[in-house]
């Protein structure tokens, strides 16, 4: 049982959540929307806001170089444009440049120490780098400033979870859910903490809801399988592990789960 709970925790901690990528409607990164934004820029070429907005649209479209170019131009026009620094940081994060991202978040916070977006963004980089105390401090600062961004509570919940403070983690994940009910990540996080406290029923409900929200996330299926495995239902566990492995063939908790339960599930 402890092994299973540990596997669930590991799975939750290693997932790159949607809180770390562009979260708005990808239609905002459509060619039509970018064309419209370009027309606005042509009419107001000295307005940094136009470049900042178009840069975000390029980022959502995956055109990171163009996004960086637009943020550079916005910052050139207004060196104290802290939102543009934070947006460029997010692009750098998506490009696999965490050092550049942290530098931009630092600059944004030098200009505006209370900017919750930068605190949360930097906190997520610190968390995934294993710098959990610094990450906790960033999430905590954003929360103390009454942020309405559920990512702050989700990030702090993950750290409470790492510290085996599951009651506090559940409280934070619940707050994250109330602020961003369409996101599966806090349901997975809360379910893992319920599982660690041997509350399998609530854990199972959370994992199933995470799947309902997005059935393409391997972690959710692995978490569901863990509950089946704890119940001794190896056939259903195998089916869920196998589905997770098909979604993400490199996800080790799925691979390990398939190997453990194969005899109960068939081919």
UniProtKB/TrEMBL annotation:
Record-linked SUPFAM superfamilies: TPR-like
UniProt keywords, alphabetically: Repeat, TPR repeat
TPR repeat segments: 48-81, 82-115, 116-149, 150-183, 184-217, 218-251
Pfam families found in the cross-reference section: TPR_1 (PF00515), TPR_11 (PF13414), TPR_2 (PF07719), TPR_8 (PF13181)
Taxonomic placement: Bacteria, Pseudomonadati, Pseudomonadota, Alphaproteobacteria, Hyphomicrobiales
Source organism per UniProt: Rhizobium helianthi
This protein's record includes keyword Repeat: yes
Domain of life of the source: Bacteria
Full protein name: Tetratricopeptide repeat protein
């Amino acid at each position: 049982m402890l092994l299973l709970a540990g596997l669930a925790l590991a799975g939750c901690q290693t997932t790159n959540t949607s809180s770390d990528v562009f979260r708005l409607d990808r239609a905002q990164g459509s060619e039509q929307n970018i064309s419209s934004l370009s027309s606005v820029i042509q009419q107001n070429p000295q307005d940094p806001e136009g470049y900042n907005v178009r840069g975000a649209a390029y980022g959502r479209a995956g055109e990171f170089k163009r996004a960086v170019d637009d943020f550079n131009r916005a910052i050139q026009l207004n060196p104290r444009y802290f939102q543009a620094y934070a947006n460029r940081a997010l692009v750098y994060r998506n490009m696999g440049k965490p050092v550049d991202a942290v530098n931009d978040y630092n600059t944004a916070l030098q200009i505006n120490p209370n900017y919750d977006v930068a605190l949360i963004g930097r906190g997520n980089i610190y968390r995934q780098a294993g710098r959990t105390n610094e990450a906790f401090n960033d999430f905590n600062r954003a929360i103390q400033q009454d942020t309405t961004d559920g990512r702050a509570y989700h990030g702090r919940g993950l750290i409470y979870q790492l510290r085996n403070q599951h009651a506090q983690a559940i409280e934070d994940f619940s707050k994250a859910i109330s602020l961003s009910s369409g996101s599966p990540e806090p349901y997975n996080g809360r379910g893992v903490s319920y599982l660690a406290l041997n509350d399998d029923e609530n854990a199972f409900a959370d994992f199933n809801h995470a799947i309902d929200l997005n059935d393409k996330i391997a972690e959710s299926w692995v978490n569901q399988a863990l509950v089946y495995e704890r119940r001794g239902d190896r056939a259903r566990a195998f089916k869920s592990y196998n589905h997770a492995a098909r979604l993400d063939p490199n996800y080790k908790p799925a691979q390990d789960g398939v190997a453990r339960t194969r005899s109960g599930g068939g081919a």
